[in-house]
Amino acid sequence: SYFSENKRMFHGEGNYLIRFLVNLFWGGRNTYVKDILTGSRALSRDFVQSYHIRSDGFEIETEMTIFALKHHFTIKNIPIPYKDRPRGSESKLKTISDGRKILWLIFKEALMK
């Protein structure tokens, strides 16, 4: 899982906080999202036709998840293997600034509930 493979400082804690907040605000008895920040998605035609992208950064995964939960789309958690980034490649994720944007999105959406 991401949590056991992740080695970057604050990523595990940030992922936990984001997952906790999204499940707190929008999760239900039958819906618990385990990994909100994975980029892997399989989307239904109904979802694609009704969802309009507003984010242009790393907060898009959170935005899509919140939209799906708010509109009662089915979410299934399917474990995927995580591997270390190839040597010489760099992540575009800026831990603090992107984390702030994601948290801001969550609180903004929670206020519009």
Topology:
Layout: H1 2-5, H2 11-26, H3 45-50, H4 60-70, H5 95-111
Helix pairs in contact: 2-5, 4-5
GO molecular function, one term: transferase activity
Organism: Selenomonas bovis
Keywords: Transferase
Rounded average pLDDT: 86
Beta-strand percentage range = under 5%
Largest sheet: none
Tell me the overall shape: globular
Q: Please state the structural category.
A: mainly alpha
The figure for the number of domains is 1
Number of helices: 5
Query: How many strands?
Result: 0
GO molecular function, one term: transferase activity
InterPro entries: Nucleotide-diphossugar_trans
Keywords: Transferase
Organism: Selenomonas bovis
Provide a descriptive summary of the structure in words:
- The chain starts with a helix and ends with a helix.
- It has helices at 2-5, 11-26, 45-50, 60-70, 95-111.
- The protein has 113 residues and is mainly α.
- 48% of the residues lie in helices and 0% in strands.
- The longest helix has 17 residues, at 95-111.
- It has one domain (2-111).
List keywords for this structure.
single chain; 113 residues; mainly alpha; 5 helices; 48% helix; Nucleotide-diphossugar_trans
